[in-house]
Amino acid sequence: MRRSFWLLVSLTLAVVVVARGRSSRDASSLNAPVDTLVINSKLNISLPSSATPWRILGKPAYQVTPAHVAHSPHTGAVACDTTGDALLTAGNRFSRRSVLLICRPVRSFFPFQSIRIALGSEPVRMPPIPNRGLDGRPVTLLAGTARMRDTAVARLDSGMIRPIALGRTFVEMDFSGMDAVLGVEVYETVTAGPVTLPGGGMKSWRLPRGRYEINLTPAAGATTQPLALSMYKANCAPGRQGPQHIHCVTYEEGALVVRNTRLPGRRSDQTGRVLIVRQGW
Questions:
Q1: Could you read off the pLDDT of 6-50 as tens digits, one per residue?
Q2: Alpha-carbon gap, residue 227 to 130, rounded angstroms
Q3: How many structural domains compose the chain?
Q4: Which pLDDT score is estimated for 61?
Q5: Do 223 and 240 have their domain in common?
Q6: Does 241 reside within a domain?
Q7: 162: domain range?
Q8: Which of 104, 131, 196, 254 holds its CA 20 to 30 A away from the CA of 234?
Q9: CA distances from 266 to 259, 263, 279 (A)
């Protein structure tokens, strides 16, 4: 289900309802309700029905002031030509309507960095939407619709992303015909913390079928890592955060084993930090 909202990107992405009412300056001269329409592209946009006079009373005429900001290509539509504000008046002999056009065309949207949310955590706010306007600067006023592609993984509620289950999905956004996509990953932390082992000792974790990110790092202040990890019944590839950072897939129950490579004896105890994150498919 698509939901209309306004996005204020300068600080956060907020969701508010478009206000409709009378403008003391415009309505007094036009004697008609004034709607506000934020447009973020140069494409043809259909006018809301409340801004279109009853055609049964005669075909309406459209006028945009100032004319260089926007134009009406055909009945019931409007298109922005540049950045600025304009007043669109539509009327016939018996009915008259007006729309305040806030033209903020976006030239392009930049790629998002996907959001990672821990399963069971509090909802997180949508990030600012990187974009470039016609003048090369970011457009700070965006209005459009957003939809979560897979609501079994996460849900979108008033500009907040709520994790539901392990997996990956996307937030699909439409700003006056301009599309933007935000990746969302919901993960589960299996363990994250220190582990201390005596010389020759080991500790293991069972890993059910799934995708995992695993990282074993030295204790704070240590210059070497006497702890070593091994994976069983898993396909793994090296990561980028260190020699013992790996990404693994288990198609049946696998296991992670961490062992102390030093021989038993005095001062052979060693501590490291283990991170196991289960990811969605």
A1: 343 333 333 222 333 333 333 223 334 468 999 999 999 988 877
A2: 42
A3: 3
A4: 83
A5: yes
A6: yes
A7: 107-129+146-187
A8: 196
A9: 17, 9, 39
